[in-house]
Amino acid sequence: MAYTSDMKAAARRLSTAAEQLHAQPNHRAVAAYLIGLAAECALKFVASSLPGGNSEAIQGEHLPRLRTALRELQLGRRQQALKRLIDSDAFMNEWKIDIRYARNQDIHNKPTDRWRTDAVSAVNLMEGWA
Asked: Are the C-beta atoms of residues 51 and 76 closer than 8 Å to each other?
């Protein structure tokens, strides 16, 4: 049975779980993975309302390539908040979907607190998106 995608609900669910796990030092590695997924889902939700944003090139992509694909969309003045987020080279920098296979110590050396802040920014953008 296939699942119906709901990027907004997924972003909220993943963000909530990531916050709970991030507060526990022994679970920071899995929190880091969920943080990135929450950011991805939030960006995909926002993109879905833009011309070309529902394409497989956007909806099937993961960070950091998702950010690159979003940069290729024609964003207007109304999308400046999204543009600022994805144009920042620091946004979710070093997060990759392959983190799901990483050793815990490899993740502990990554900027997980910054990723958390970035994901919160993406989810907040999603929540305010009209």
From this structure: no
For the stretch 55-96, pLDDT in tens is 999 999 999 999 999 999 988 888 999 999 999 999 999 999
The residue type of 100 is R
Alpha-helix residue ranges (DSSP H) falling in the chain: 7-22, 28-47, 56-59, 65-71, 80-87, 104-108, 112-128
Question: Does the bond joining 64 to the residue before it have cis omega, within 30 degrees of 0?
Answer: yes
Asked if residue 110 lies in contact with residue 94, where contact means CB atoms within 8 angstroms, the answer is yes
Q: Please say whether the dihedral angle defined by the alpha carbons of residues 43, 44, 50 and 51, taken in this order, is positive or negative.
A: positive
The radius of gyration of the chain's CA atoms, rounded to the nearest angstrom, is 14
- Dist CA 117 CA 130 (whole Å): 22
Show Cβ contacts of residue 74 under 8 Å, excluding neighbours closer than 6 positions.
51, 52
